[in-house]
Amino acid sequence: MRIPSATYRVQFNRSFGFQAAKRICGYLAELGISDLYASPVFYATQGSAHGYDICDPDRLNDELGTQDDFEALIHDLQQRGMGWVQDIVPNHMAYDSRNWRLMSALENGPDSTYAGFFDMDWSHPCVQGKIMAPFLGRHYPDCLEKGEIGLRYDSSGLSVCYFGLSLPLRIDSYRIVFASPGEPAGIPEDVRNDYRLLDDILGGGEEVPPAERHDRAALLKEDLWNLHNRSPAVRDWMARRICAINGRKGYPESRDLLDSLAASQYFRLSFWKSADQEINYRRFFTVNQLISVRVESELVFRDTHAFLLKLVREGKITGLRVDHVDGLYDPARYLHRLRESAGDAYIIVEKILVDREELPREWPVQGTTGYDFLNLVNGIFCRRENELSMTETYLHFSRMDVPYRELLRADRDRVLRGYMAGDIDNLAQALKEIAGRSRYGRDFTFHGLREALSEVLILLPVYRTYISSFPPESTDGYIIRETVDEAVRRKPGLAEELHFIRGIILGEEKGCPVEEKPDRLHFSMRIQQFSGPLMAKGVEDTLLYHYGRLLSLNEVGGNPGRFGLSLKEFHEFNQKRGRDWPHTLNATSTHDTKRGEDSRARINILSEIPDEWKTNVTEWARLNRRKKQYMGKNPVPDGNTEYFIYQTLVGAFPNYEAEYQSFLPRMKEYMVKASREAKVHTSWSEPDSMYEKALCAFIEKILKTSRGNRFLFRFLPFQKKISYYGCFNSLSQTLIKITAPGVPDFYQGTETWDFHFVDPDNRRPVDYERRIARLDDLKKEAEHDLAGLLDRLASDVRSGDIKMFLIWRALWARNRMKEVFLAGQYMPLEVTGTHAGHVIAFMRMAAGGRAVTVTPRFLTSLIREGERPLGHKIWKDTAIAVPDRASWTNALTGEVLEDSPASLSVGAILSRFPVALLLNEAKT
Questions:
Q1: Residue 269 CB coordination number (10 Å)
Q2: N or C: which end of the chain has fewer CB within 10 A?
Q3: Residue 916, SS3?
Q4: What CA–CA distance (Å, rounded) separates 416 from 423?
């Protein structure tokens, strides 16, 4: 297996395709990257900005370039000894006209070859025999009568269209639409013959056996299109028929036939909001445009993975990243099938591990995409002893009177009942059917079962369990039992229903016949598919924008209710990671993180200076009070949102005035998105334009660069101070990522300071020309005057060059001593002396040598703003204990500590650069 040494994530889109990626391969190799880590590159919806809306996994996305462009990129990587880790999307595809498999299902109905390909319920009681198409901007009659829905005919056949969406008509509708006018008198014989041929072709669509429907339809459409192109008379007749069926503006009755045609199809056009309350296909979270596939079927697996696995066999793709693994029916079975098919490819999964949750050991993967690492490394830069002070300031400012755990439950409940009601209804209906077959469940009502099931899902502490057989694994059983017990304490009136549900999920149902066990297991596995999306929507896409005590903790997979963690916990995590998952990814930014990695590093500084923060944020609120608008008696923004804004500004405000102009519109767009995600004052489903305008007006006023803006006058000095200290947090975080157990992953553009907001802001174009030039300059400076370069970097930390320098030098060391960093033992090092609590130190050891990482933290109490955290004057008697005497070389500065004692002075180690990587290579 090829194990990456360092990965670099790129987001492919029409503006950054295969040729653009090829132009940066040399730069990435020079930086020290071993593997390109690619967003989905397969055929997606038109103009896709991310590639997760795949329409056809059998081909490349032509908006990214040609097959030759792709091959040239692969060849360039291989020539440089680099690999390719590909993000794949097994859970869902796009509900889009380009998705020919889905269009086949919608055209041919339950008898289609692809009817069972997608996770759809053709027997749903509300829309039997049809699949919902919830994409209308208003209710169906309004869209129909306003002429937004229409019939269209082209080379692909007849379709019902709504703006960019085209859905195919079933083949027996063609005769209704195009029935010929017969043989009216006075027309030429050749036209008469064309009309006869039209009738003959249309007659081929009558009473077609299900097994022949797809092939017969394809033949009929081909013959019809050929006739359309050959015969002007037929073409004119078809155009007049479609025009007549589409009706006339102002005459609703003229659209009756169109309505009748639409009603007779295998799909049902409906208002997009209706999907939240009534849905008969599984979506990706709550995204109507992404329909899930039944990849648990071997046929579906082979169909959707054939092209991908061909690229793997050819060595063009060397690693795989499995998106949303928790959405799969049976993740373990899928991963074993993938491993069997992909051989020794490097495989990681996008799996969110909550708190102390562990990745299932039986999964044949190398690890996760690194959110567990992100939150652990972030936590050690949060000053835990200041939790009470920071909490009091937040509660006083925001007027939030709901405890964190209750807010967590309330937000998940709000999402379940408001955005996933249709999904929970479907599960409850299935549960009711099971209960009806048992004397122990026969008396339970649909409402009672729905409420009990909702409570279990809302309280589940993890994204999902992995029950795939009875009896379940002990960990899964424990989680379900504890969750049900908590639900009983909260809802004692539902105790019997809850205990019944527990029995179903765990296969312990009283009196259940053996032959019905498979039904119970299937239901248990369906519940598990749903719990992950609920957690994601309730926490990642709601709570993290609603609760704002310290925004650096509000991250995917994080726990905002936990205020940091100890170094002991961090070292234990790394030791276990080194033993169990040495090749998992270490991430600090991804395409899904809620803010840039260096913004988090800045915001963490607030936990070091709670009193100063309280003074400043209180003063800012006083200065900005009159800049608010009121909606009734309610100010916009309220205290909670205002607190969110100030932290965001502290974390993301640009370093240079040249960036101010673009920052304001980005900030406004971000805060509108954040407010909609919070779902308190506005939301995606019910946007409040008045509120959003008032919110943006407030941001404009507080960021206005004028002499009269006293807020900005007070804010900028404080923010620059935070920015200065945040740089050192970032450098420490970066070096730890590179040297801790795991594979360091870099999101595009983060090799310099990264202050992006959440997507789509983090997909903005990256200025690679500037980065390529900067790296080239840094290398030249280091070669000719390393001491002068180090001094320059330390004196201008805001430029971002210092971060790029660190990454380059540390990756150089990592690649030089691969055995140490890929498989070496992890050992925490004891730090002693005056400032022991301000140093993080650990050693990696293998046969190839040893490496010691030394990074500072909590510098606000050690140095003044602008002062460098270097030398004995700062660090005094602080020292690091190493196992024995050795000669160490600092990979970043080139300094050599000859025959160093077993106790290394931090002042000596950090004499030239704010962090250190000491190497002791084994002699060969």
A1: 20
A2: C
A3: strand
A4: 9
Instruction: Give residue 214's pLDDT.
Output: 75
Give the ranges where 247-330 is alpha helix by DSSP (H). 256-263, 298-313
pLDDT in tens, 426-451: 999 999 999 999 899 999 999 999 99
100-284 maps to CATH 3.30.1590.10 = yes
- Order across the sheet with 287-292: list the strands: 92-94, 287-292, 283-284
What are the tokens at 735? 């070096």
Q: Please name the residue that has the structure tokens 């489903």.
A: 685
Query: Which CATH number among 3.90.190.20, 3.20.20.80, 3.90.550.10, 3.40.1190.20 corresponds to the domain 7-91+295-369?
Result: 3.20.20.80
Instruction: Please tell me the distance from the alpha carbon of residue 205 to that of residue 105, in angstroms, as a whole number.
Output: 17
Rounded to an integer, what is the distance from CA 572 to the centroid of its chain? 28
CB atoms closer than 10 angstroms to residue 306: 12
Q: Which secondary-structure segment (H or E) carries 775? A: helix 768-795
Going by DSSP bridges, is the β-strand pair 585-586/743-747 parallel, antiparallel, or unpaired? parallel
Domain boundaries, the chain: 7-91+295-369, 100-284, 401-546, 599-725, 767-921
State yes or no: cis peptide before 125, omega within 30 of 0.
no
Q: Nearest Cα to 868, choosing from 834, 836, 915?
A: 915
Torsional class of 511: left (φ above 0), alpha (ψ -120 to 50), beta (otherwise)? left
What was the pLDDT predicted at 180?
Answer: 76
Q: What are phi and psi of 384, to 5 degrees?
A: -65, -35
The pLDDT score that the predictor gives to residue 304 is: 97
What single DSSP character describes residue 400?
Answer: -
Which residue do the tokens 């590639």 mark?
51
Report field, pTM of the whole predicted structure over 0.70: yes
Q: What backbone phi and psi angles, to 5 degrees, belong to 845? A: -135, 135
| Strands, E assignment, 350-410 | 367-368
Q: Which of these, 896, 855, 901, lies nearest to 875 by C-alpha position?
A: 855
pLDDT given for residue 207 in this prediction = 65
Superfamily for the 767-921 domain: Golgi alpha-mannosidase II (2.60.40.1180)
pLDDT (0 to 100) of residue 513: 87
Distance CA 53, CA 48 (A): 7
In whole angstroms, what is the distance from residue 237 CA to residue 228 CA? 9
3-state DSSP assignment of residue 320: strand
Centre a 10 Å sphere on the Cβ of residue 87 and count the other Cβ atoms it contains.
25
261 touches 64 (CB < 8 A): no
In CATH terms, the fold of domain 599-725 is Arc Repressor Mutant, subunit A (1.10.10)
Sheet harboring 849-856: ordered strands across?
A: 825-828, 839-846, 849-856, 916-921, 886-890, 896-900
Of all helices (H) and strands (E), which one includes residue 831? strand 831-832
How many angstroms separate the CA atoms of 583 and 4, rounded? 8
Render 29-54 in DSSP notation, one character per residue.
HHHT--EEEEPP-EEESTT-SSS-SE
Backbone angles phi and psi of 922, in degrees to 5:
-70, 140
Q: Provide the pLDDT for residue 191.
A: 86
Q: Are 177 and 245 a contacting pair, CB within 8 Å?
A: yes
